Amino acid sequence: DWNKRIEYRPGSGSIPLFPSIHLETCDGPVSSIHTTIELQTNYIGKGCDRETYSEKSLQKLCGASSGAIDLLPSPSTTTNWTAGLLMDSNDMIFKFDGKQGAKIPDGIVPKNLTDQFTITLWMKHGPSPGLRAEKETILCNSDKTEMNRHHYALYVHNCRLVFLLRKDFDQADTFRPAEFHWKLDQICDKEWHYYVVNVEFPVVTLYMDGATYEPYLVTNDWPIHPSHIAMQLTVGACWQGGEVTKPRFAQYFHGSLASLTIRPGKIESQKVISCLQACKEGLDINSLESLGQGIKYHFNPSQSALVMEGDDIENINQALQKVSYINSRQFPTAGVRRLKVSSKVQCFGEDVCISIPDIDAYVMVFQANEPKITITGMDHFARPAAQFESERGVILLPDIRIVSTVTKMEHSVDLREHDRVNKQVVVEEMLHNLDFCDVLVIGAELDPEQECLELDRGEFQGKHLDATNSTAGYSIYGVDSMFSYEQVLRQLRYRNWGTSATSDRKFRVKCSELNGRYTSNEFNLEVNILHSSNSNFMDHVNHMIFQPKFLQSVQHPEGSVSAVHSSVVPSVATMVIIICVSILVLVVTLGVLRLRSARQHGSLGHEGPKDNEMDWDDSALTITVNPMEKYEKPHQTEEESEEEDIDDEEEDTTSAESDDSEEEEEEEEEEEVIVQKGDKQNATRQEQLEWD
């Protein structure tokens, strides 16, 4: 019982291949059972599903020594020597048809590789045509003109891998090891293999697919005498600069190459080499502890083949049910992986007694949802020229955010609508790694004599990141999380100590996952340099235009940035002052209104008793007073008020002729009169509320 098609969705982990399989021998006694499960992945990428990061990023991820030089990079303005080669851009594979070669520009690789260096490459190569095949050059360093001496080279000859190293002449003019030969079947099997040549002169070691191979033949030669002739480093063919009428390429390579690097001064450990060539998919066994006793199993290095042996049918059946397929890539290569299961049964006293047919099946790996990487942040700001000229410069991307989302189609069944299936588009945020982010200069390149981009090396500590800096921009690379990239980018600074000739600068940020398989939007940033003539304009620009964008960035709590607060503090102080002044004006206005209201009530109090003597008061008061008192008090109040008015006029006349001390006394008397008036007015209001 088994399914021919096994479906695998990205992120599923380890899934069993044959959960119900069992072998039957019709009760025939058997002495041993031998079963082989093969996963055929040689047509996927470089032999299996591996990470498709750039070689530099992958070496950083595996902990390799720094300083590796990529000899087959993606074509660009700075690495243009691979532009004319046949290339599969998805997997960074270069195909050589025996007619092409590439010259490495001077200065890319140092002339002196020292006595320790490493060469790494992926190679796919088949048998060479003809009885006596010509040398096929992978890498060659030869004389550029006049002569045809090869200083070091790596080439294939008659399905043998040969490394040539001619040391320069020194005091000891003696024979030295010069050619190292390895004869391996894999060199011409038309399959992908990973080769590492570790040189510790005079010892040279070859690693192929993680296994170590010593050379079967080492030949000696005389050292090369020094000369003034320049050298030419080439890939895919060897440069013949002398002994011919016209310098040309020779000894062309037939096959495919990828990730060809050279690292001067250091060799790699076997642990790093195993990491660099590791497959991310393969066969697995769920719960090794639960395997039955007497079961022997063996994986090949890439875990594409598994052999199991045992003498009990039931134990073999349980072991086969635990065999599974796993793919640890977040974005695996979609497609079919073929499976083949073959078994042999041995009976007592016989070689093979039962013939068991092979099982053919396949794993269908589905395409992962493609992420959409979005970069956001403040895209325009201005600062005084003095800040750009300072020792620390100005932080370019203080609030940059990198977010990745995937769009999914969810299906739901509505029972009320007769089981109708509803489709809904859902956008979800997802986390994954990046492998590089470039901050490029738009327009004229940076002038190294007056401006630069800077980043403290301490920002890379604890991260799988590194960087390269040039006048064209700043490139950060390495396999790490989006959060780690945000942290580093937020510390990138721009300095300009010659601001008088510059008023603005424009930059562009772009990030990638899986060596350009998924790329972000192009985030553009404009920086204005404010000189003293327009310093007054700075406040208007920073507060009126850029403050809202800063406030928007606060919605993301991760990265509160101190560098931007300087442009916001003045506006906060201004707001506090405005609020205080507004409160003061409000208090004064309320005081004036209350004073006017009090005066109006006072004037109404004089006339109110006459007009409203008989007004009905519907309050709950039940006090009864003598009506005669009510008529007497108003008359008395009027007489007193008239007398007080006369007194006021006399006091005013007198105050105009008196000295300062007399004015103070009169003011005190006036205050007493006002108090008396207030008391009488209160009494009048109280009488109006009484029931007649």
From TrEMBL:
Compositionally biased intervals (Acidic residues): 639-673
Residues in Calsyntenin C-terminal domain copies: 289-632
Positions of region (Disordered): 627-692
Places the protein is found: Cell projection, Dendrite; Endomembrane system
Transmembrane portions of the chain: 572-593
Major localisation: other
PANTHER family, alphabetized: CALSYNTENIN, CALSYNTENIN-2
Name used for this protein in its record: CSTN2 protein
Record gene name: Clstn2
